Amino acid sequence: MNNERIDKLVNSFKDKFDGNPDILVRAPGRVNLIGEHTDYNDGFVFPVAIDRDIMIASRRRDDLIVRLYSLDFDQSVEFSLGDIKYDEEQKWSNYPRGVAFFLQESEYKISGLDAVITGNVPLGAGLSSSAAMEVAMATTFEKINGLTIEPAEMALLCQKAENKFVGMNCGIMDQFISRMGKKDHALLLDCRSLEYDLIPLNLENIKIVVCDTGKKRGLVDSEYNKRRAECERGVKILEKFLPGISALRDVEFSDLIKYSGHIPEITEKRCRYVIKENIRVLESVEAIEEFDLLKFGDLMNESHIGLRDEYEVSCPELDAMVEIAWKIDGVIGSRMTGAGFGGCTVSVVVEDSLQELIDKVNEEYPKRTGLQPEIYICTAEDGAGVVEI
Ligand code: ADP
Ligand code: MG
Predict the structure, then answer these.
(1) For ligand 1, is residue 73 a contact (CB within 6 Å)?
(2) Is 74 a catalytic site residue?
(3) Which atom of ligand 1 is nearest to the CA of 338?
(4) Residue 168 confidence (pLDDT)
């Protein structure tokens, strides 16, 4: 399947730009196993890079012109590195534009290039095709210009491109895992220090399954901002009793309980979720290291319940998807993943029960919601890199 994609990409390059590309680069999408809404609270996340990616075939130019062709959209753009502007028409090109803009702002000397882009990360499903696009583009500029960009710096540059150029207020997780993922590993990332640890998953006979609810993530922007504000409010109040804290990351669960009488009920619920979710991430790593997958599955389930009842970012569609999975014996754990109000769930499933999960989701989910699910069976893969042609 990948060979076919590569052939198609290279042929398309030959078609559009004559001659062969210098290099082919890929950067993966991701799924977060546990640690939701913890990133902006300076906490922990635990994603894997997946076997769906953006691929870019490119050739260096001696001038400052960047010519890009999107194979999937059948659209071309051209711009100069000397004058990078937001593109209202071909919005996909703002990811590469933003990356080029912030590379140059960081004093990297880059030349123009011709490139063809293709991807199989579903767009807007919550598997972060946008981060894959940014990291693939940054890696392309890095390799084609013989630069060395520290992985964490590249992730930060790409995040900046998405925050400030595209205008989407995302955390650092997606770009970080797309750059730094490792085959058969998940990444424990401390969103405050950016320290990280690659944890072997030991998932023999176990599958990671992503189920897309097909529900558009409608409320997500306004509710996301509200949740962030409630977390900040919690910190402001708790600061009076716990001098020196700067994020919910710094608050012990026992302290939250101790001072809960001073915190409005809703804010307290939000804080309770975040503090417990951070603990769950660290306990998940321990569980996996001790080969205690059942414990990990329980933590995933608890995470969903917290997102549903305390953080209140789930929705009937996500709950239905998770409930269908929970009823199957071979499902070790299942939870919503991503910001919520639609998007995907992630389940960890014994291989023997995979078909049962697929069948049940296809049968029961449309009945309960009237929507059509998409199912992606994922493996944990390496982060961005050059693909040998
Ligand atoms: P998500 O990151 O959850 O997939 P986003 O809305 O953040 O969703 O990013 C999706 C956008 O990324 C698309 O609208 C498009 O602009 C860009 N993109 C993703 N995949 C591709 C692709 N294969 N070709 C061109 N642009 C893409
Ligand atoms: Mg995105």
Answers:
(1) yes
(2) no
(3) 3
(4) 86
Query: Which atom, in ligand 1's list, is nearest to the CA of 131?
Result: 2
Work out the mean pLDDT of the chain and round it to a whole number.
96
Distant-in-sequence, close-in-space partners of 167: CB < 8 Å, separation ≥ 6:
none
Pairing relationship of beta strands 47-60 and 374-378 according to DSSP bridges: unpaired
Choose, from 174, 212, 250, 319, the residue flagged as catalytic: 174
Residue among 5, 25, 130, 170 to mutate when testing ligand 1 (max atoms within 8 A of CB): 130
70 touches ligand 1 (CB under 6 Å): yes
Give the model confidence (pLDDT) of 347-368 as tens digits: 999 999 999 999 999 999 999 9
Task: Tell me: pLDDT of 93 over 90.
Answer: yes
What is the predicted pLDDT for the residue at 124?
84
Query: pLDDT of 214-236, one tens digit each?
Result: 998 766 778 888 999 999 999 99
- The CB of 130 under 6 Å from ligand 1? The reply is yes
| pTM, entire model | 0.95
Are the beta carbons of 206 and 348 closer than 8 angstroms? Answer: yes
Residue 2 — very low, low, confident or very high, per pLDDT cuts 50/70/90?
A: confident
Determine whether 167 is exposed, middle or buried from the number of CB atoms within 10 Å of its CB (0-12, 13-18, 19+).
exposed
* pLDDT for the residue numbered 218: 67
Looking at the chain, how many residues does it have? 389
